[in-house]
Specification:
2 copies of one chain form a homodimer. Chain A has 18 helices and 23 strands. With 555 residues, chain A is of the alpha/beta class. The radius of gyration of chain A is 31 Å and the shape is elongated. Chains A and B meet through α1, α7, α11 and α17 of A and α1, α7, α11 and α17 of B.
Chain lengths: 555, 555
């Protein structure tokens, strides 16, 4: 049987009440206890889950409904639970007073007065009230994050359309995760700063990708949530398109990673078209969709969350390196390899990247020779007949490197450096010497950039890191593997990221938050030194919609 | 003009003479100097490169031919170069005496007497003599590595066929790299010990893959070279097939990585068929070939050297972990996830791995439910209506985990653990508690294995590593990402690696080397504490083949 009572005029957030329900359910005297605010949605839920009591007819959204399933029909149970509830509520109040001191406001107007530069409202109140509050905040030119679910698609479309006209963003509804301008919004992780911007229609999808990025020792700029429905036919990706514009404009974002379920077909087309307009590399993961081709212009498609993170980190490294180097846009790439297989792989990768054909004859060790780009295997018989292999005696390559000084069209030289037993005792010396000579023959406005990969281990007689340090101190770029080296070379000879003036989004540089709903979200923000005011929202006029509407008109 | 002389009866290796040539060429008085042993091949080369002099007609393979290009026609040049050559040869002799003390032998028979357990001969003498020496060593039941090039295909086929009948291997000709039983053979790197065995028909290909493996903090068992022609139509992959048998039999090798250019079609079929007979995962990289499907039974195809290394390390980690766990072969997998996207990705990966279909209705959060395998999203509305999300309150999942104790068919439980702001303060505690209860309900012969991935960073309030440490100390396996977790789960429910008795290859456990040719190879072996004798090979009967044949018969 169900015993029940109402505690009038005491608004609490849903998570707190759920935790209280769980604690009370553990008492021996009861089977199960459900404690909820008396909102229409909660009343339906109490009914559907067998906790209904007619007592609740009188409850307003400001009243706590308590339903007790028990085999003990004494009224003592109500007294017991009532006492326990009071204790629990007192505990919460004490914790809140004893814990972080939060800036608080009971009305929206006073919240904005207390935090005049607030530019985002984080909404985690009951879903049926979320849209109205979001609408109010949009009128006030705030960006919106709606953590709440149970917001209708119609409301979502209306809010997002309105925001779009004002260059604002609505993240959500049902948006669990965002990190904006360093602020952890709802379920968020502490991730190092980096140059990867993340957009996601999936909360744990964002969390896993940024966690993997951190594991790979890289970091993020922003993580913008969309809510799971944003890329549906009905919503049309309004926030996805805004988020792309925001990260396109965000100078510290050099690579964009986009995560969602497969979008509706026409939305996919819109999103892909928007991505192609952005002069930054973009990793796209449309979860569980089949990939036709791994790359389409600046868009790299991933199959899994960790692959998305790995691709993003690769591109991020390339962009971060490229932006510190002089421009050689429009120049050609020359590869001078001592390892035949390394030359062959670089030729293959470069051919794919620049849409060229590899050479199949391998005449004179030439693995690729097209449009001025040239990859040579200097270990080919042509160079080694009667001479030691260039891994042993690197002088022939040193001459070839030096010669590039006289070839002004060449902007990038790609090289390997093989160490280990049998190899030259200090191959870096020869690479550095050849490169210095080449650079000396160039004018300042026609630089040559050298990119090297090192084959060999730390324990090799030459020591991997010592060779790398020597190369780096001679301004030679060292990449970890051949695909990285080729991607960087391609990036350097193509035009860089746009610096054309674009609309700016101040939110990405400075955030100040009104938090309506779960208090812990405000505490997390405050712990991260983000300006925040806790808006102690409660349903207007006790949740009576008619009365609320009249009151609104009176304001 | 060319001036020339012969230095009689002084055999030196080709690399030493090449370095001497280079040094002498730097002298002001000359244009270029070529110093070579008077072998037939070298004589052709001197002719082809414009260094011929009729003086050389009398030179034997034991004589040094010196050709000097110069504009100075004084005979002084010959005296000068002759003096310099003598100095250089003296230097080499002194270095050899002053350097490492090597065990030395002038005849093959004495080499084997000095190192009775020698089981491999490393041959880097002039190519035209390499096959004969290899043949002799095969008769003597030695394994062979031929570094030399210029060995005919006919000789290669003959030697490899002969070796095959004796369960021996011929690596090469033109095999630049091998690492056997810890011995660096020719161009080799110092790589940590691990469980990945490498087979390669490309020297720098092997070197780059093992270097990348070391960068990923893993290691190798062996690296077996084949020579670039082994997988051609003519040679038919004889050594490739032997190498596969060797690593199949090698207990410490749990994953095999195979690198070559695309083999001839019928050789490819043979090699792939042999790979499928091996109950170990194999990564195959057929350089620059198009991959039709990324996986075929136990074979994983890679596109690049670093991808081959990454795949090998992933599989190696899975195998190394699996072999330390009790067997749950034939059991099912249960996934209990709090993150919806994580559950969806795991369902997709598991469906692909086990050839199952994912569930599209997602009824009650069920993402996959087939053949007893089941992946559930416990964040689905079905579980969270009126309850906090399991990321906040993990008790509902704790119950589900504990319930697995009563489901004896389930062998593996896959889980996520999401930390960060908003999430539970110690989610590991709940996972551990549920898992302990499940295990307590199981008998020792019906274990349950838990595999968890952690979403979140080290800087999160809960600390990634602290959560991981807690899980590990409760015997819960923690993997870095979802593909790793799924691969391990699949591996655990399928039969393990064969322990059926196979032919053993003692070479892989203990190696003892006769080095014929480049002295530095012997020095490198000795520096690595590998038993080695330097066989100071010189052409028999001064290279006179007829006389040599007569002498051989007299022996």
């Amino acid at each position: 049987m169900i015993q029940s009572f109402i505690k009038k005029g005491s608004f609490q957030d849903s998570v707190s009440l759920m935790l209280i329900s769980k604690k009370l359910s553990n008492l021996e005297e009861v089977d199960e206890v459900s404690v909820m605010m008396g909102t229409p949605a909660n009343k339906s839920l109490l009914n559907a889950t067998g906790f209904w009591s007619d007592t609740f007819n009188d409850a307003t959204p400001n009243d706590i409904c308590v339903a007790i399933k028990t085999h003990d029909d004494s009224t003592n149970v109500i007294a017991l639970i009532s006492d326990q509830l009071e204790d629990a509520l007192k505990n919460i109040a004490q914790q809140q007073q004893g814990g972080t001191k939060l800036l608080k406001a009971r009305r929206y107007a006073s919240a904005t007065e207390k935090l005049p530069d607030a530019n985002l409202i984080l909404i985690s109140i009951a879903g049926e009230y979320a849209a109205e509050l979001a609408d109010q905040a949009l009128d006030d030119n705030k960006n919106i994050m709606i953590f709440s679910d149970n917001v209708s698609v119609d409301d979502e479309v209306r809010l997002k359309t309105k925001a779009d006209k004002k260059d604002l963003i609505v993240m959500g509804p049902d948006c669990g995760t965002a990190i904006i301008a360093g602020a952890p919004l709802a379920f968020a992780n502490v991730i190092p700063k980096g140059n990867i911007g993340v957009i996601g229609a999936s909360g744990t999808g964002i969390q896993e990708v940024i966690s993997q990025i951190a594991l790979l020792n890289q970091g993020i700029t922003q993580a913008i949530g969309l809510g799971g429905r944003d890329l549906s036919e009905e919503v049309g990706g309004i926030s996805a398109l805004t988020a792309l514009k925001m990260l396109a404009a965000d100078e510290s974002t050099q690579v964009i990673t986009f995560i969602s379920k497969p979008p509706a077909e026409n939305v996919r087309k819109k999103v892909i078209a928007a991505m192609k307009q952005i002069n930054k590399p973009i990793v796209a993961l449309f979860l569980a969709s089949k990939i036709d081709q791994p790359q389409e212009d600046n868009i790299y498609f991933a199959n899994t969350l960790d692959e998305a993170a790995r691709l993003a980190c690769l591109l991020a490294k390339v962009e971060a390196t490229a932006c510190q180097l002089p421009t050689v846009a429009g120049k050609t790439i020359s590869g001078l390899y001592t390892g035949g297989t390394l030359a062959a792989e670089v030729a293959m990768l470069l051919a794919k990247a620049l849409d060229l054909a590899v050479s199949h004859s391998h005449d004179k060790g030439i693995m690729l020779d097209q449009n001025g780009h040239k990859i040579i295997d200097l270990g080919d018989d042509f160079y080694t007949v009667g001479r030691p292999h260039p891994m042993i005696d690197p002088s022939i390559r040193e001459e070839e490197i030096a010669q590039l000084g006289q070839q002004p069209a060449v902007g990038v030289v790609l090289m390997d450096l093989v160490i280990g037993y049998g190899a030259n005792a200090d191959p870096a010396e020869s690479v550095i010497s050849g490169f210095s000579r080449a650079c000396a023959a160039r004018s300042a406005d026609n630089p040559l950039i050298a990119i090297v990969t090192v084959t060999g281990s730390e324990q090799d007689p030459q020591s991997r890191h010592q060779q790398i340090e020597a190369l780096k101190s001679a301004n030679i770029i060292v990449m970890d593997n051949l695909p990285e080296a080729v991607l960087l070379a391609k990036r350097l000879i193509t035009a860089g990221q746009a610096s054309t003036p674009v609309r700016s989004y101040p939110l990405l540089n400075h955030i100040s938050v009104i938090n309506a709903g779960l208090r812990s979200f405000a505490e997390d923000l405050q712990a991260s030194n983000i300006p925040v005011v806790q808006y102690q929202w409660a349903p207007i006029a006790g949740g009576n919609k008619k009365l609320a509407a009249i009151l609104k008109k009176l304001n």
